[in-house]
Amino acid sequence: MVRKNLSASIVKKFIPARKSKSRKDDNGIVLVVGGSYIYHGAPILSSIAALRCGTDLVYTSVPKINVSATRAFSPNLIVIPLVDQKLTRGAVNKLVSALPRNLHSATIGMGLAVQEKNSLLLLVKSLLDRDVRLSLDASALIPEVLPLLANKNVVVTPHAGEFKRLFGDSPSNSKNERIKLVEQNAKKHGITVLLKGSIDVISNGMTTYLYEKKIPAMTVGGTGDVLSGLVAGMLSKNRNTLESAAAATFINGLAGKIVQKKLGLHMTSMDLLDVIPIVMKPFDKVV
What we know:
By secondary structure, this protein is α/β, with parallel strands linked by helices. 42% of the residues lie in helices and 16% in strands. A 10-stranded mixed beta sheet has the order 1-10-9-8-7-6-5-2-3-4, with helices on both faces.
């Protein structure tokens, strides 16, 4: 098992160069599926984060009750309404039929109200069958989804509570035990696991990256939604799930450090979105 602390020199290798003659669609097309009557902001944060990390197009699919608020927030989002207020099989079937054929990646689960587990499983399977790379968070992190994910291009991004729900094991406060638990489950299920915490642990079961944040201001709601959007954005350009998850973690953390230095313990997740381009600029490459 290889273990490394994330650094700028490592992450620079994980972010592909952009071709100087590239056209729209060449630099990533992302789908974000989330939101509910209560949590309308989560998929917006994810979507803007995906755009801010250099993705060309983001399709944001939210329940119809959230559509107006989502469209009003930003003209940059292409909003696809879910026909029901929660995720249902009917809503999934209509969503899948409306998606572009050349979709690269998707992030699912942030603030998402799921009416029936089978609807979530149908969405995940439908996207994987199209070779779409996935980032799963929040409501999408249920144990029933694991059999669909083995050896596919999938990242799961749980905090400690979601980790227990997904894998049945509760991460301890011991750094070494947390690392081992992430590595074991990543290897067992053939996925990349990004366990969020004061130290983010990212592993595919063979290689593990660690990122110690020391950013207490990032406990504010929505920072995980920003991270999910960054993971999907990175996945749209780099099929390697471990590299994409590691790069997203590092960029999210750097943005948090800048905002905390500027605003102290008073940041919101919106503040992170404004800083992402500044953080990513040193990683830009054009060929």
